What does this fold into?
Amino acid sequence: MLKSVEGIYKDGKIELSELPSDVTQSRVIVTFLASKPVHSNSQMISFGMFNGSNQSTEEDFKVAEFFEDVDDNLDYS
It folds into this structure.
């Protein structure tokens, strides 16, 4: 009987996402799948963009802004 288990190959080792049940020792065939490219779509948040009664408010945007903390010893120049 054949069983398939997904996993990740990294640094010469295979990490299985789950342990196969009822298998203590077995021969294996490893097939390497093509990596899927990661597409990241950056989006801006705009005032009032969400549907419903829970709209973004001006206060939400003020909270999300970064305010420099002079006591954190980081160089912001």
Observations:
- The longest strand covers residues 7-10.
